[in-house]
User: Which sequence fits this backbone?
């Protein structure tokens, strides 16, 4: 008995309702189940009712009879169209050559200077003969471990060799001050902000389609309210911040005025028994260690408050490690995100309203004072400051006293003088102090005597070459050298120590910086030739008065005990032992290959 038309119609209606909700395998299994129920002739009847081939219906019936477990997928493994990367073996290498031209491909890749979007990559691959879509390119990149990446700001540039040591030194100073209940503050100037209806980074909740309207360009309106210069002071122990919002220029005067406002407005109340103040600051900017106005303004603040102010600068290139950046400025930026800073009052109120879950307190004030730029501070003003440079990196670490410290009477100062020591030509022999040279005086004496002879012989050889004949006068005749060979060797050693600049050495030796430069160029090869290595120092000097003050504090021998003849044990005539000797033939006995540290 055949299958009636009524059954065929019922199958067609059932398939029409169910098939849109089933995948390919489920449809095949449903047709196989119906065919098995109908028995003989069922495969053909089901195929005609479903509009499928009899082979597909037969496969579904066979799968049901085999009792296979659910596959968890529509097709069997290996079924369907092959991937583009499998069909085209050169597709993947060509793609990697485009996205990594420096490592895997041609440095002159067509997409070297354009955006590497999946559409551009797909277009270039298609042009090269690898027909592929943008979606496939994205899939291949993810398979190769690629993802969309923004720039990572981690490269800090060249690191100073004493970077870690300076951080440890700052930590020791902070522990000492906090342990004595003296304040430790981190200071810095925040990014200048435009005041007005300007775009501010970030997003805030607003009615959909109704954002805050701001100007299309961030050009400063000269007739508007101008700009704001927030200068912050963060009290580390009290977890409290103070921000002075300046309106003129970001200068050292503004920085110190902000610190003064903080001390009288909050610091003195939070630390009533404080006798000292530790300030940690960046290496550059208005509070940089090279800024002379910063030191003079701090000296005036120390005299006004009676505080002993110690400043420790962060090493160059480490401003992001400044504590105020993470504890204060970042929270201020988050607090006013997405809102235009329309007035100075809005800025001050937004800063003052900044809080954190850890209890941060912030006070803010508007500073409308004038702080002109271009203020000059000369060497005499710096030398007159009541400032003591620390033994470790005196350029980064120094203390400003409320009054000049009482100094012991010396040959160049009266017993009752409180002025800082000035450099005198009679102190020339103090430059041989081991604190400056890094070697003992006996080693320095031997080294200078031997190298001075070699240097004299080399100079005589050069002069004879220029003259084209032997000299007519005996060695030592004629005017004496103002800058002698021992001085030249000593100047080179001091420069190798890293404490002195060419200009400062010129002032100490009474010559020009150009002469010092030529001297170092001539003498340095002699030291290198004989393996003489001078240990580097962490001390830095700016003026001759810095050298004198340092020796007054750390010298290993009082100046009145130094014998001027200890350095120049040989006369100028004795230094040139053989006017015709070649530098190659010179032998320097008694000088160690590496000088001790």
Assistant:
């Amino acid at each position: 008995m055949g299958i009636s038309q009524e059954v065929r119609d019922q199958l067609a209606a059932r398939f029409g309702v169910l098939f849109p909700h089933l995948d390919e395998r489920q449809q095949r299994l449903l047709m196989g189940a119906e065919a098995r129920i109908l028995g003989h002739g069922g495969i053909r009847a089901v195929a005609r009712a479903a509009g499928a081939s009899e082979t597909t219906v037969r496969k579904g019936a066979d799968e049901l009879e085999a009792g296979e477990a659910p596959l968890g997928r529509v097709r069997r493994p290996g079924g369907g169209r092959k991937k583009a990367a499998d069909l085209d073996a050169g597709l993947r290498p060509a793609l990697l050559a485009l996205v990594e031209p420096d490592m895997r491909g041609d440095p002159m890749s067509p997409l070297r200077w354009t955006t590497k979007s999946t559409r551009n990559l797909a277009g270039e691959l298609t042009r090269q003969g690898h027909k592929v879509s943008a979606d496939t390119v994205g899939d291949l990149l993810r398979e190769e471990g690629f993802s969309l990446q923004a720039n990572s700001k981690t490269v800090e540039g060249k690191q100073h060799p004493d970077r870690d040591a300076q951080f440890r030194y700052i930590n020791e100073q902070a522990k000492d001050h906090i342990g004595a209940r003296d304040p430790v503050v981190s200071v810095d100037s925040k990014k200048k902000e435009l005041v007005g209806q300007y775009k501010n980074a970030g997003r805030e909740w607003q009615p959909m389609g109704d954002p805050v309207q701001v100007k299309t360009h961030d050009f400063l309106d000269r007739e508007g309210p101008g700009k704001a210069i927030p200068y912050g002071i963060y009290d580390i122990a009290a977890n409290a911040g103070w921000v002075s919002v300046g309106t003129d220029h970001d200068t050292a005067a503004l920085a110190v005025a902000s610190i003064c406002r903080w001390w009288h407005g909050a610091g003195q109340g939070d630390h009533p028994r404080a006798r000292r103040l530790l300030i940690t600051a960046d290496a550059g900017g208005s509070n940089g260690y090279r800024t002379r106005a910063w030191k003079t303004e701090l000296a005036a603040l120390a005299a006004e408050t009676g505080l002993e102010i110690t400043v420790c600068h962060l090493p160059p290139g480490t401003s992001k490690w400044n504590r105020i950046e993470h504890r204060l400025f970042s929270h201020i930026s988050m607090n006013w995100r997405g809102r235009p800073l329309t007035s100075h009052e809005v800025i001050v109120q937004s800063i003052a309203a900044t809080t954190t879950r850890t209890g941060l307190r912030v006070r803010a004030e508007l500073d409308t004072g004038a702080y002109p730029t271009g203020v000059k501070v000369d060497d005499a003003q710096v030398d007159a400051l009541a400032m003591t440079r620390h033994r470790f990196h005196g350029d980064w670490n120094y203390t400003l006293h409320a009054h000049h410290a009482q100094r012991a009477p010396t040959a160049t100062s009266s017993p009752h003088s409180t002025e800082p020591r000035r450099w005198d030509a009679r102190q020339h022999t103090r430059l041989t102090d081991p604190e400056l040279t890094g070697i003992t005086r006996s080693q320095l004496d031997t080294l200078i005597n031997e190298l001075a002879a070699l240097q004299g012989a080399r100079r005589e050889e050069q002069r004879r070459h220029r003259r084209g004949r032997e000299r007519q006068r005996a060695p030592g005749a004629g005017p004496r050298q103002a800058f002698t060979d021992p001085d030249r060797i000593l100047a080179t050693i001091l420069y190798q120590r890293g404490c002195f600049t060419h200009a400062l050495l010129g002032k100490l030796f009474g010559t020009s910086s150009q002469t010092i430069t030529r001297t170092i160029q001539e003498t340095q090869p002699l030291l290198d030739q004989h393996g003489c290595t001078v240990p580097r120092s962490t001390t830095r000097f700016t003026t001759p008065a810095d050298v004198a003050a340092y020796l007054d504090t750390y010298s290993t021998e009082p100046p009145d005990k130094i014998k001027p003849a200890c350095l120049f044990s040989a006369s100028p005539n004795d230094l040139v032992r053989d006017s015709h000797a070649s530098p190659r033939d010179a032998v320097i006995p008694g000088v160690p290959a590496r000088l001790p540290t």
